[in-house]
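Protocol step 4 of 5: obtain the predicted structure for the target chain.
Materials: sequence only (see below). No template structures provided, no constraints applied. The aim of this step is simply to have a reference model before the mutagenesis design in step 5. Sequence pasted as it appears in the construct record:
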Amino acid sequence: MKKTIIYTAALIVVALLGAGLYSGYQDNTQTNKSKHSPKTMVTLGDSLTYGVGDKSGEGYVENLEKLIQEEKETNVKLKNYGIPGQESDGVVKQVKLTNIQKDIRNADYIILFIGTNDLIQSNGGDLKGINEEKIKKGAVEYEKNIQDIVKTIRQENQDVPILFLGLYNSYPDSAEHESIIDEWNTNSQRLVNDYERIKFISTNDLFNEKSKEYFSDSLHPNEKGYDLITKKIIDEYDF
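Step 4 output (structure tokens):
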């Protein structure tokens, strides 16, 4: 009888130890799974988000995906919805599409980089001569669209961090152009500051001079130019 009791007790101890080890194994498995589960990044914008000008075809988005995975050891699944020539009203329509709304709901990060084409088109199709009255009207419409975009995103996903990239001056030698870019960026930053979990990231300080070293044409960065944008995002936001 005494042997039976000892044997039974031993079985109970072994069972408890086994359960503890299994529980610990499950916890570690879940932790590792969480660490290596892909994070979804949705990017919205125009040709700058699409990557025009980068011969490698990657632009800042693909570069960002690589750097996050290498430096932050985080697996990232990319959804790039950048469209060359797109203006902010195009993004307003995009974020209401069923498939994109689904991606927004599941997104861990969202990047919005839009407004360059709004500025250009409001001035008549280029920025060679500045029409302040037209640009001011364009700015009002642009700001309204930004509000609509952010509201729609927040309706689908209240918590996702949104990185809003400011515009840069493609005519850095022109004080008049610089003043306009500063005004658009200041107003954009004021708008996004009204929302939680939205970070404004400046890009204008990256290009203090126009150089073939960083530009592929009069507007679009080359591979080295996009690298500057990627590094700025990494420096400004802790993924």
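Step 4 remarks: Residues 1-34 have pLDDT under 50 and may be disordered. Strands lie at 39-45, 76-82, 109-113, 162-165, 198-201.
Proceed to step 5.
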